[in-house]
Amino acid sequence: MGSDPSLTHAFDCVWDVWQTMAARGEFTEQTLDKFGLLLRRSERYLYLRGAVVLGDVTAELAEDFVTARGRSRHGHVTDSAASTMLGRRSVLRIAFRTLRELGLSDTDPTRDIILPSRQGGEIRALVEGEVVDLRHHASFIDRPRRHGAAAALALAGGHSAEIGHIRVCDLDLDGRRVWMHGATKTDARWCPLDDWSLNVLAHRAAFVSARQLRPERAPHARLAVSDKPASDATLQSRVCVALRNLLTWIGLDGEEDVKPSSVTAWAGVEEFERTGRIENVACRLGLRSLDRAAAVIGHTWHTAGTNGQEEPCA
Q1: What is the value of pTM for the model shown?
Q2: Which residues pair with 171 in a beta bridge?
């Protein structure tokens, strides 16, 4: 690994890479700003706890940062919310993944940090950092993969029962959207595509179209699974396998409340944060019940939460 870099230098390198990732659409501008703030908060916290060089960041110190009590918007010191702890963990996890790719580290101090699951066995939505990591692992290098297409369609709001049916002709690239045909429990609808998803699906569409022996079949080529005849259940299973692979690659395979549907639920969270309307979430996800839409994104109707991040107390 060479000489151990200072914590400040290491995190400066992370920030440079994240800016490059943002240029590729893996970070939104808002997420980049939020993660930059959290990165510097973690650096300050770790430094005050004695971490001067990168090698000083132990698993115990990382867990201390993730679970540290926070200061609310009213200035009170309280236990940090689950969403805050998830956000801190994902920032550190992505930071150390970035450092490993840069050859500055070979560890992940967040690997064994397990946070409380949602009550009642409910599935939680991914948080921003996990979505960033998912995009990064799903991005293609040599050729557009089915994993990227599955991730892009799920992040747009598609369910596993729908994604396997999506074909090239369902893409409206000019309109930056994709047509979801609906399923037994969901309605048909248009789902918007962000920059990353639009780019991934455009390249995947060109790739699968070029592989068709007959040009007239190109519009009917499936995006996230092969074109081999298969039952609805088999198509759904293949989509779930692709999404589970991605969740494993980003270290979430041990989380009991994280499933392939957690990727889709992120689209609902994003819609609610953008509009503040649960009915928009139901439309985005094709759900017929507002109660179900609220449950998917973990929203409590009569107890409004906060989207802000609590600052850890050093």
Answers
A1: 0.83
A2: 178
